[in-house]
Amino acid sequence: MELGLNGRVAVVTGASRGIGTAILRSLRDEGATVVNLDIRSPGSGRVGDLDLTCDVTSPSEVESAVSEIDDTYGRIDVLVNNAGIMVEAPAESIEMAVWRRVFEVNVEGVLNMCQAVAPIMKRQAWGRIVNAASFAAIVPSVGSSAYAASKAAVVQLSRTLASELGPWGITVNSYAPGMVPTEMNGFEGLAPAMRDAKLDQLAIRRWGTPEEVAQAVTFLASECAGYITGSLLDVSGGKLATQSPSTAYAAPYAGGA
Ligand SMILES: NC(=O)c1ccc[n+]([C@@H]2O[C@H](COP(=O)([O-])OP(=O)(O)OC[C@H]3O[C@@H](n4cnc5c(N)ncnc54)[C@H](O)[C@@H]3O)[C@@H](O)[C@H]2O)c1
Questions:
Q1: Domain presence at residue 108
Q2: Where is the Ketoreductase domain (predicted)?
């Protein structure tokens, strides 16, 4: 399948580490010029063709970064809003400042980026916007109130934008990764019992990799996904696809028997 990303210019937020770095590499492997916008510098040198320090919650920083990209490359074809933060706290007692910061990064950050990039994509009459939601937007976990609510907001913002930008040939989709061990969630360090409880929720009973999420995002960003918009792509290994997926790993089901 020819993805048609050769020569495209792609911006990925939060690509200095984690899933974002894998998305950046995947888009570059398909021939795109890639730009990383992150509040922190990449740990080991450069990850994008251009790496810009930018806090996506700041409309002025976003505006100036997007102008710099437009001045440098003359276009922006793909925007992946990957930057996000996760906080765990009970809804009953979460501090309002913490709640607001989660919404600032996860929701307003996406909106700031879309508002800055949409005029450029409209000018081109072509664009792909792909937004990181989470499986928490579908089924939240205990302690995830701010995070889950913010990611549900991303899904509905994406669906609204899909209709508003459709007339200019711009698609807007979101995706729900899970469960990919990164610095955000610390899954690698879980005690065996907790790890097994999490893996027992999955039809594909193993952790996901950043590259598996990146491949799904790259498809949504491609020419091939031109008739897909307003959708939420579940990239979670079939989390809770059935009530007790782990039973399929017990005899007599295991191994496809
Ligand atoms: N890892 C998972 O299993 C998982 C599951 C569901 C959803 N997600 C989502 O995928 C995305 C990436 O997750 P990850 O696990 O790679 O996280 P991560 O913490 O490893 O990476 C997030 C990146 O976003 C950047 N960032 C944070 N705040 C920013 C800001 N204000 N401005 C610019 N950049 C900022 C960070 O510096 C970091 O480089 C997030 O939106 C996350 O919510 C991840």
A1: yes
A2: 8-178
Print the domain residue range for 102: 9-186+207-237
Total tally of structural domains belonging to the chain: 1
- Other Cβ atoms less than 10 A from the Cβ of 124: the count is 16
Identify the CATH number of the domain in which residue 34 sits: 3.40.50.720
Instruction: Note whether residue 122 is domain-resident.
Output: yes
Cβ–ligand 1 contact at 146 (below 6 Å): no
Residue 74 within any structural domain of the chain: yes
Tens digit of each residue's pLDDT (9 = 90 or more) over 164-194: 999 999 999 999 999 999 999 989 899 999 9
Q: Tokens 């091939």 identify what position?
A: 224
All residues at 6 or more sequence positions from 148 whose CB lies less than 8 Å from its CB, including other chains:
134, 136, 137, 140, 141
CA of 20 to the centre of ligand 1 (A): 7
Which one of 17, 56, 184 would you pick to mutate in the ligand 1 pocket, going by the greatest count of ligand atoms within 8 A of its CB? 184
172 lines ligand 1 (CB under 6 A): no
Counting atoms of ligand 1 from 1, which one is nearest the CA of 81? 41
pLDDT tens sequence across 202-217: 999 999 999 999 999 9
